[in-house]
Amino acid sequence: MKTHPLPLAELVARIVAATTPPAPIAAADRTDARAGASPSTPGTHAGTAAAARRNGFTLIEVIVVIVVITVLATLVAPNVFRHVGSAREATARTQLEMLGSAVDAYRLDNDEYPTTEQGLAALRARPAAGPQPREWRGPYLRRDVPLDPWGRPYLYRSPGEANPDGYDLLTLGRDGKPGGEGENADVLGWK
After folding, report:
1. 48 φ, ψ to 5°?
2. What DSSP character marks residue 144?
3. For residue range 4-28, what is the model confidence (pLDDT) as tens digits?
4. Hey, CA dihedral for 172, 173, 176, 177, is it positive or negative?
5. Quick check: 137 and 109 in contact, CB under 8 A?
6. 20 to 30 Å CA-CA from 178: which of 4, 34, 66, 121?
7. What pTM was estimated for this model as a whole?
């Protein structure tokens, strides 16, 4: 039996057609089969089975489809995963801006930033430790302080090392260590 290569559209159409269940045998066909009609008569169960076999697809066609899907996956997957790192960095920058705005609102009410000891928790609940705020009008955040996109708490220092008159707010990136490049780079709230 000689096979000919099929265009991709026809190959997909044959696969879809082969996966649809065959139509049920009509009542008239069943009656003909009981009445002694030959099994090879079109319209009988045997004729339907032969038609179903013709609508199937060969092993080569299945392999071609698997190869096409594999090639597409190898082309698409790196592009998807390349953007995951930049999306996490963008999320971290957005959250740092939101937290920075809440810290600034805290300072407007209390004339001081929360201390390092009080941390970002002072934005959700009146701090119990350290100097008591004069006019705490919180909560300054609608929800709990979020974790960074890599699942760790944001780092907050007041007074800051980089900003001695203010505060430092940052995340250390994917690796959780200072410095780094790419997705491991620190995301700084003041840059």
Report:
1. -65, -40
2. P
3. 565 666 766 777 666 555 555 555 5
4. negative
5. yes
6. 121
7. 0.57
